[in-house]
Amino acid sequence: MRTWYLIQFTPDLTAREPRNVGVVVHDDADNWAVRMLFVDKTGAVDPALFRPLGGSLTAEEYAGWVGYYKRAIMEGRWEQAVTLHLRRKVSFHVLKGGTLLGPEQSVTADARSLFDAVVAKKLREPGAGGLAQVRTLTMQLLDECGVSYTDNVVLPARWGDDYSDSVSFAFGVGNTVVEPLALGGQRGGLVAREFYARASAVRSASDDDASHFVATYSGRGLSASGKKQLLRPVMAAATAVDVDSDDAGEALRKAMG
């Protein structure tokens, strides 16, 4: 039997409008899996991914709660974590989601699918996503693709004929560069053109083994004509993948080759 729990954060306890921030899955063999927002592949909260959840919560405070839940599991105090909000007035609390009745799979796989269904999709609000949101969803898709990726890839670049430089990108998967872009808002066009310039500079400095580029973005809130215009410079340099599309995972897998 597998039991799952939902972790919520409530910015204003008087308003009682919680936000889903994580899931925990536990099975009869005492296996556990935890997935929470803004946590990188090492299991730590990445300040670069963190975005305000409301109230005065900081990245450091959020990391403290992530650590609290992990320690509660490791030290056999999970039930105390579940009932903490009954003993103290706190902004984080745990709800028992219920029992998973579907096909048997690992608690890690269960946690991944639950996280996508009840936490990640809540991030996909109307309006094109900011960079932190697109980056978070991109990391989730890379995990779903089952690939090993490197953070902060630095590549040689050349501007013009004489000036050599280096530029950085978010993720590297083998010879493929995956770069999240925030195309919404007034700076969307500038972001698209700047990405084209960086990718072109890398190609100018590369030999026949030049990197292949994939750009991820959120199409939420973008009109068809607006999206087409924004993607022109992006698609001139890379394969573009909408992280909010229904087939985003498969599209990213194909784009990476």
Short description:
This protein is of the alpha+beta class and 257 residues long. It has helices at 59-74, 78-82, 84-87, 107-123, 131-145, 188-204, 224-235, 248-256, and strands at 2-9, 19-27, 32-36, 92-100, 150-159, 163-173, 176-180, 212-217, 239-242. The model has no long low-confidence stretch (mean pLDDT 87).
> What's the structural domain tally?
2
What is the CA–CA distance across the termini? Answer: 38 Å
Given as residue ranges, the uncertain stretches (5+ residues, pLDDT < 50) are none
Question: Which structural class do you get from the secondary structure elements?
Answer: alpha+beta
Strand order of the largest sheet: 5-6-7-8-9
CATH architecture label of the largest domain: 3-Layer(aba) Sandwich
Main sheet properties: 5 strands, mixed
Shape: elongated
Report on this model:
This protein is of the alpha+beta class and 257 residues long. It has 2 domains: 2-124, no CATH class; 131-256, 3-Layer(aba) Sandwich (Trna Endonuclease, Chain: A, domain 1), CATH 3.40.1350. It has 8 helices and 9 strands. It has helices at residues 59-74, 78-82, 84-87, 107-123, 131-145, 188-204, 224-235, 248-256; strands at 2-9, 19-27, 32-36, 92-100, 150-159, 163-173, 176-180, 212-217, 239-242. The strands form 2 sheets. A 5-stranded mixed beta sheet has the order 5-6-7-8-9, sandwiched between helices. A 4-stranded antiparallel beta sheet has the order 3-2-1-4, sandwiched between helices. Strand 2 (19-27) and strand 3 form a beta hairpin. Helix 5 packs across helix 8 and helix 6 packs parallel to helix 7 (224-235). The radius of gyration is 20 Å and the shape is elongated.
